[in-house]
Amino acid sequence: MIVISSVSKRYGSKEAVHDISLRVQPGEVLGLLGPNGAGKTTLLNMLTGFMAPTQGSISLDGHDLTLEPRQAKQLLGYLPEQAPLYDEMTVRDFLRFVCALRLVVKADAEAHIDEILQLTHTKEVEGRRIGNLSKGWRQRVGLAQALCGDPPILVLDEPTSGLDPRQTVEFRELVRSLSHGRTVIFSSHVLSEVQEVCTRAVILHRGRVVFDEKLQDIGKSSTYRLSARVLGSEKQLMSGVRSLPSVISAVRVPCDDKGQIALNLTCKAGGTAEQELFTLLTALEMPLMRLEAAESTLEEVFLRCTQS
Amino acid sequence: MKAVYLRELQSYFYTAGAYVYMGVFLLLGSIFCAVNNVAARSGDVLSLLWMMGYLWMLLTPILTMRSFAGDRRQHTDQLLYTSPAPLTGIVLGKYLAACTVLMITVLLSLVYVLIIALWGRVYPGELLAGYTGFILQGCAFIAIDLYLSVRARSTMTAAVTAFGVNLGLWLIDVLNAAVTMAPLNAVLEFISPYQRCTPFRLGQMSYASVAYFAAVIFAMLFLCVRHLDMRRWRSV
Question: How close A274 comes to chain B (CA, Å)?
Fold first, then answer.
C-alpha cells in the first residue's frame, strides 16, 4: 500500500504541493489529474524518491522512502514524462542494465527480459539502438524498463503524451493489461484516458487534492454531490462535516470569496445530508452562503475543481 | 555499482568519447616522445611522463562531461536515482569507468617506454614511481571534473567548466613562479597537482604525494555524493 502523509514541497516561496495525504490500496489504478503546474509531476517525483518532500513522509508497503530508500525503491517501476533511455544502447542491453540496477538475479535476467519484451510487444526491436526508435517505440521501451524487477507499484507520468491516436490507444491497452495485480499511479491530462484505465481519480489543483473518488461512484445513484460555501472557521467546519452520517467525504476546494470556505461533499443517496448540514451549521453559527447539487461526470468534476 | 560501471564503460566505447580521448592522447604523446626522446636521443622516460601529465588537463573533460550532465540532459538521472542503487555506488561506478578508460590509455603509453627501452635504458623503479604519479594525477583530474559534471546542467557547460578549472590548477604553478612570498609559495606548492608530481618526476615514491592525490579523489567523490543528495532536498 502507498501511504502519502501530509506531503508538501516548496520551491522558494512557491508551494508546488501542499499538505497532500493519500492512501492507495494494492491493485488500485489511480488516475492523477490536474491542469499544467498543478503539482502532478512534483508529487510523482517525491513518490518515486527522485525528490524529497519539504514536509511529510511517503511509505511504500511500510518502507519509508527516506529511511529505507533501497527497500522502498525496489517496489517501484517509474516511467517519467520523458522516457529515461540511453540512445547508444540496444533495447535488450538497456533492459539488461536496468535489471542489474534493480537487483534482478543475473541467472533469471534473460528470461525476465524475454517476458517483458513479450508483454510490451517490443520483441521485434530488441536488437535495435534506442536512438533509432520512433516516439511510440521509445515509450514502450520506457514502460519495459519500468517493469524490470516485476515491481508491484507502477508510476506512469503522462505516458501517452506525444503519441499519435493509434499509439495512444495501444499504449492504454497495454497499461490496462499490466494493471492486473499491480498498483498503478497514472498521471494524465486526458480525462477519457483516466476514465478508461483507472479505478480511482484524484484531481490536483494548485498543489492540493481537490477531488478524490472512485470512478465508479461518479454519477452513480448510491451517492450524490453537494457543493457548499460557508462563512466560518475551517477546522471546526471540516471536522463537523466529516462526522455527519450521510456525508461520505468532504474536500475543501479553492474559493475566491474571502472568508468563505468552499466544500465538495459526497453524500449517501437517500440520506438526509442537507438536513444534517443545516443543523450542524446552525449549531456552529456559521451562515451557509450557497448550496447546490454538483456534477456527475469526471469532466464536470474536473472543470469545477480546477476553476480559478 | 557494477551495473553502472559496466554501462558507463560500454557507453565510452559505443560513443566517440573514449576514441577521441585515446586518439588525441596518442597523437600528442607521440609528438612528445618524438621531440623529447627520439629526436633528442634521450632515454628519459620520467620527463616524457611529466609532459604527458599535462594532457590530463586537456583531455579529462572529454571523459567526464557526459557522466552526470549527460544523464541530466537525457533524463536518465531519473532512472538512476529512482532505482535501489545507492548514490555512492552510482558515483563510484561512473568514476571507476572513467578511470578504466584512463588506465587503458596509460597501457597504450607503454609503447613509448618500449621504444625508449629498445635504444636506451629504462630503470624499473623509476618507471614505477613515474607511472604512479602519472596515474594518480589523471585519477585526481577525473574526480575533480566529475564533480563539475555533477554540478553542470549541460555537457557543454561541464566540459568548459572542467577545462577552465584544470587550466586554473596549472596556473597555480605560473602564479607560484611569479610571486615571491614564502608563505604564499608554500600554500601554492601544497595545492598544485603538478608540483605534487615533482618527486615522481625525480623517480622517487612520495607517500605524501600519494596521500595528497588520494585525499583529493576522496574529497571530490564525497562532494559528488553530497551534491546529488542535496539536490533531492533542494527547494529552490
Answer: 43
Looking at the fold, whether A96 and A198 belong to one and the same domain comes out as: yes
Of the residues A8, A91, A101, the best mutation for testing chain B's interface (the one with the most B CB atoms within 10 Å of its CB) is A101
Interface size A-B, in CB pairs within 8 Å, comes to: 77
- Say whether A97 and B78 touch across the interface (CB within 8 A): no
Name the domain boundary from A208, A237, A264. Answer: A208
Given 3-state DSSP classes, what are the helix, strand and coil percentages for chain B, each rounded to the nearest 5? 85, 0, 15
Domain count, chain A: 2
Query: A200 - beta bridge partners?
Result: A30, A214
CATH number of residue A224's parent domain:
3.30.70.1340
Domain at A44, CATH number: 3.40.50.300
d(C-alpha B67, C-alpha B146), whole Å = 7
Q: How far apart are CA A87 and CA A95, in angstroms?
A: 13
Q: Which residues of B34-57 are buried (b: 16+ CB within 10 A; e: fewer)?
A: eebbeeeeeebbbebbbbbbebbb
DSSP secondary structure letter of residue B34: I
Chain B residues inside the 8 Å CB shell of A86: 7, 11, 74, 76
Give the pLDDT of chain B (236 residues) as one tens digit per residue. 899 999 999 999 988 889 999 999 999 999 999 998 888 888 888 999 999 999 999 999 999 998 999 999 889 999 999 999 999 999 999 999 999 999 999 999 999 999 998 888 888 899 999 999 999 999 999 999 999 999 998 999 999 999 999 999 989 888 888 888 888 888 888 888 888 888 888 888 889 999 999 999 999 999 999 999 998 887 55
**Which residue, A253, A235, A236, A234, is CA-closest to A301?**
A253
What is the domain extent for residue A60?
A: 2-208
The ipTM estimated for the assembled molecules is 0.85
SS3 A266: strand
- 3-state DSSP: chain A helix, strand, coil percent, rounded to 5? 35, 30, 35
Residues 70-109 on B with a CB inside 8 Å of A are 74-86
pTM: 0.81
